[in-house]
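Hi U.,

Before I forget, here's the chain from the pilot set. I'm dumping it here mostly so it's searchable later in email.
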Amino acid sequence: MKKKVLRMISMILVIVMLAGLVTGCGGSGSGNESNSDAVTVSLLVPYDFEDELKTVVEVFEKSHSDIKVDLVLSSGDGGQTPTELSKLAAGSNLPDVAVGVENFAYILSQGLAYPLDNLYAADGDEDNALQAGIDNYTYDGHLYALPYRVQFNGMLINTDLLETKNLDTPDYDWTIEEFISLAKAATDSQYSGINIVVGDDDTHALQTKLMGAMMDEPYQMYGYNMETHEFDFTSGAWTKAQEYIKELRSVPGLVSDELKEWDKRNNGIADAYDNKFGGSADALASGKVLFGNHNTWETYWMADKFNFEWDIYPVPHAEDVSERIQTHIDYVFMTPAVTEEKAEAAYELVKFLSYSEEGCLARMEYSAENASTSALYTPASSDPEVLKAYNDSDIIPEGMKYMLNTVSENPEKIFIADANKLIPNFWNDVNEYLEQTEEQIENGGDAHALAQDLQNKVNTAAKDTWANFETKLKTNLEQFYKDHAYEQK
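Structure:
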């Protein structure tokens, strides 16, 4: 009899344990499932954000016991959010909330973003959002996304090498002329001024950065005017940037990676790069290069790779142009899948992932613990406590602190370095004619003479693109209000 009673008790305990396991399996597993009144909000999670979002969503649910977050794992990374949403929409499986880093204009053109005007205006902390992010994602007077995080175009600098070469440390507000002078002064038989100047990525190429650094308001990335929706290739910045690149490349050994002669290496013959830096050594990582053409989202590989003191500076600007910080702002937004019953809960989540003090501090903590595997997180918030925590951090380079403080204090100091994210068909409109022009220049054509024709052709395409986009935007907004009449308060 005693054994039967013991067996019965054991069975009851097993059942209780299994029940506990089952209730912990849904959503993010934080335990909110026990609250039958909780509103469930689904969040699309790109695979490169998965670990971070799982971690911070647990923090969110603990302080929002009335909201349960259902994580929807994406088949792509953050750059694939637009195409992933299109697939989900086609199957009537849109999530309520999504984050992304590319092509938000495409999301808008497909009618996949929920206007946040009323929700943002009703929030008592809305002034804490980085104003530039709010401006970026406001189209035709309607706010469609909140800023998710901030990243900066930059210039990696080996500050130890400055001391070794007895060179002056520049201010963060520095000029292109100072940059080139230092790069030349650092170059000798052992050291180089910079690692790379030309790459396959037009968005972040040094020429693109320098072009932007020679333009005042209202021009942004690649000379794009956000008000007129036209490009400027004739002011001189486009051609001058090419001349700067040629000047850097003309100094023997200044650009370290251009010393690589891959045909000789493949034949087993030591090339100029090996001769200068020794075998298969990485010149930048070995501390033999003063500048690295790198940006703040690349910090994850720098901490463990470098055995020297380094910083990330803003992109230097022309002497006759005011400093503007070349800034990228990623996004978090709600989709039309959100219903009236879910709207406030969904906004609480996007706010948490955008500018709320609690959310930003949680993500900064995650970033500090994972600095060697993911980019250092820079918040899209001007909340005083968030900025204090950022500035007090031991792992954030001083240059990054300078850049965030600058754009938080004065949004006019921002240069939009990700216009391709905000403007539909950006690179397609440019590259169709840019490639033809660059080929003519390589064959001896004069860049100044070709600039006007390039500008005319690109702007004709860009204006047509924007006109079509505005039509879609208006149609999509009308449909949204038909489906969400409660938002027309």
